[in-house]
Write a structure and sequence with these properties.
InterPro entries: Class_I_gatase-like, GH, GHL6. The structure is a single chain. This protein is an alpha/beta fold. About 30% of the residues lie in helices and about 20% in strands. The protein contains 20 helices and 30 strands. About 50% of the residues are buried. The longest helix is centred in the N-terminal third of the chain and has 28 residues. Strand 24 and strand 25 form a beta hairpin.
């Protein structure tokens, strides 16, 4: 703890305070905690977990300090005490950074009686009772409650307490509010009535997403300016979650959010562990230099909301460690200051200790990869919460395929697409980036002309940035195709046939065809350098069983590969291969995606791992070295938690390309603590890595 305290104290109460806030404890108090919880226990937990920053419940829905603001509800258990102030003092005594948490999403009856205009209204004109606790009311996030009342609370907390920031949870509202204020404001600014659907085809819905973005962006600015007027080093930190890049303008985030928080606290339902790290890659794709924390709950994150509970230690560790692997800073959150179940303390402490051990090396390096998935933020921002997951299915499927193939990769936001950003990678993948602007299309064309490669699938480039359908496929000239029929589906019992010998169709020995997609686009090849490694098998019935046979020979391009004069390569798969792989997990689809990427890469990957295991791989580099992080996800519960036990992976072989003019001076396993041998092998080195249980980091130093 001494090192992290010294490190934190060097930036205490400065504008750069957040740079040394690298391990977080969040304590979210229950109303009766002031008379039930033990502050000394929590101070000791800060030390035990090597936390150097803390987020503490302060006010909003309930104040845990003696607030003097009328209608700001103060915990009825507070008495003469100040639990928030006591925790702030204890944390500052450890030279920790301190952030106050506020939650403005609900109000009590007295505030509702005094200001009924603060209450959110549903589509039928009814004021909204809280869905989980009907004694209170849901607030309208776009009303005077957030723009007049909450600023007073922000001002009071900032002036009275020794804090670095205020963190707001559930501040963005809960869907469309139909109160009179929202109706009038929305109509005045957009000319539309408030939407009754969340369909991306509804102009009113698309207008509402933009209107909401503007209102909330102004709110961030207002709260931040209030704090800085009192304490210039402080910041307002809105809890945006992993979808912040689609909900808010990047310019606002860049100016007002010194670091970002990912509030995806664990797995829900069927979800792979790598979702934790994916969020980090996504944020990094838009803000490569911005610190990002991953909030992890100590309880299960299922829809049944067992918030005051404890999941298994291996599940907690897997989520936190995957974030660490992909460059996220760990943050754990505990609901309720009373601790009836202490089983979370040791696994959290172990994962935080692992982060602390890797931090001196990993923090000075930057993530690197030859392959990137384009994050289609322009497409996704048109979707609401009820459709966003399905809209991301293609990206999830491509992510899963690259993970299974052990191909290191990063992500790049389509909102940050520049020539310089594209040139960081040899291959850029568009899993289903439907909405692309003409300028983005030109950037991709120029990138390929310079020697870069693009793998695109399904409806990429079929719509404009404002979600209007294009008459022609925007990427068609680049990919060497012309669309002959728009997407049809869902269809059943579809197949694609292998057409000749090609690296993209390698590994399917014994098969003349593999299963196809459920949504298909028809294209024909055009231009020079075009090949079709797979063809569509024309539809045939799936019942009666006696009729299940093809009537016609394969025809129509199902995969189009093109070699360009400048050395770049493109691949187009005109069907929903990513989404159907994510749904069905057919191994052939994963192989096809990986084959397409490897062919587009046109060479051996710079970092390869030879082992039969499920490893999430991250690569970081600096001028004099490389760090390869290997997170072991080989587990029967990898796709559906909670994990019961971490199963060790055996020894594996790591093959790394050595930069021209350099050689390996030293290789160390940072977690295992031992020196490793690097055997030269034709411009590469071969390293035998001992087996490990959770995570290993292999550090190569160049000379």
């Amino acid at each position: 703890m001494l090192h992290s305290r010294i490190q934190a104290s060097s930036t205490l109460r400065t504008k750069d305070w957040y740079r040394s806030a690298t391990r977080w404890t969040q304590l979210t108090l229950a109303e009766d905690d002031p008379v039930r919880f033990d502050p000394a226990f929590w101070i000791e937990t800060f030390k035990r977990t090597q936390s150097n920053a803390v987020c503490l419940s302060a006010g909003g829905y309930i104040a845990y300090y003696p607030s003097e603001i009328p209608l700001h509800y103060v915990s009825r258990f507070i008495g003469d005490g100040d639990p928030f102030g006591a925790l702030v003092e204890g944390a500052r005594g450890l030279d920790m950074h301190v952030m106050a948490r506020v939650d403005p999403h609900a109000i009590h009856q007295d505030a509702a009686d005094a200001h009924p205009e603060w209450i959110a209204v549903d589509a039928k004109g009814r004021p909204r009772r809280h869905w989980a606790y009907p004694d209170v009311w849901v607030t309208c996030a776009y009303s005077g409650y957030n723009h007049v009342f909450m600023p007073k609370i922000v001002q009071e907390i900032t002036a009275r307490y020794d804090i670095d920031a205020i963190f707001a949870n559930r501040w963005q509202g809960h869907g469309v509010c139909y109160c009179d204020s929202c109706r009038l404001s929305f109509r005045k600014e957009t000319g539309h009535e408030l939407p009754l659907t969340t369909s991306v085809e509804d102009p009113a819905w698309l207008a509402w997403t933009g209107w909401r973005r503007g209102v909330l962006s102004r709110l961030v600015v207002e709260w931040d300016e209030i704090m800085k007027a009192i304490k210039p080093h402080t910041s307002f930190i809105p809890n945006m979650g992993s979808v912040s890049l689609t909900e808010f303008d990047l310019g606002m985030i860049e100016r007002y959010c010194p670091f970002l928080c990912i509030d995806d606290q664990g797995r829900r339902g069927t979800e792979p562990v790598w979702m934790a790290g994916r969020n980090g890659k996504r944020i990094r794709g838009a803000f490569p230099e911005r610190p990002t924390v991953l909030i992890t709950s100590i309880g299960p994150e299922e829809e049944h909301r067992w918030k005051d509970s404890v999941t298994t230690g291996p599940e907690m560790r897997a989520w936190i460690d995957n974030g660490t692997t992909q460059g996220l800073l760990p943050w754990f959150t505990k609901f309720n200051g009373v601790v009836p179940d202490t089983r979370w303390i040791e696994p959290v402490s172990q994962s935080f200790a692992l982060h602390a051990a890797l931090e001196p090396v990993a923090s000075r390096m930057r993530p690197t990869a030859e392959i990137a998935i384009l994050d289609p933020a322009t497409t996704l921002r048109h979707h609401g919460l009820d459709t966003r997951k399905s809209a991301e299915a293609d990206d999830f499927g491509v992510y899963m395929a690259l993970f299974e193939a052990r191909l290191p990769f990063e992500m790049i936001s389509d909102q940050r697409m520049t020539a310089a950003e594209l040139d960081r990678f040899r291959v850029v993948i568009l899993a289903n980036a439907a909405c692309l602007g003409d300028d983005q299309v030109r950037l991709l064309e120029d990138y390929v002309a310079r020697g870069g490669s693009v793998v695109a699938a399904f409806e990429s480039g079929t719509r404009t940035p404002d979600n209007q359908p294009r008459a022609e496929l925007a990427l068609g000239p680049l990919l060497g195709v012309r669309r002959t029929q728009t997407t049809r589906g869902p269809v059943k019992n579809t197949y694609v046939a292998i057409n000749g010998s090609h690296l993209i169709s390698a590994g399917f020995e014994g098969a003349a065809r593999i299963i196809g997609g459920t949504h298909l686009m028809a294209v024909e090849p055009v231009g020079e350098g075009v090949e079709t490694p797979f063809l569509y098998v024309p539809d045939f019935p799936d019942l009666p069983m006696e009729e299940v046979y093809p009537r016609e020979a394969p025809r129509g391009a199902a995969v189009v590969a093109r070699t360009h004069p400048g050395g770049g390569r493109t691949v187009f798969i005109p069907w929903n291969i990513g989404a159907i792989f994510w749904e069905v997990l057919a191994a052939d689809h994963g192989r096809l995606i990986a084959n397409a990427v490897r062919w587009a890469l046109g060479k051996r990957c710079d970092v390869e791992v030879e082992v039969e295991a499920m490893l999430d791989i991250a690569v970081r580099e600096e001028a004099d070295g490389l760090l390869v992080l290997l997170h072991n996800l080989t587990n029967p519960m990898m796709m559906k938690g909670p994990i019961r036990h971490a199963y060790p992976v055996g020894p594996q072989t790591l093959s790394v390309a050595v930069p021209e003019g350099r050689h390996v001076a030293e290789v160390r396993a940072l977690v295992g603590g031992q020196a490793l041998e690097a055997v030269p092998e034709g411009g590469r080195v071969r390293i035998e890595v001992p087996g490990f249980r959770e995570l290993e980091a292999v550090h190569l130093t160049w000379a």
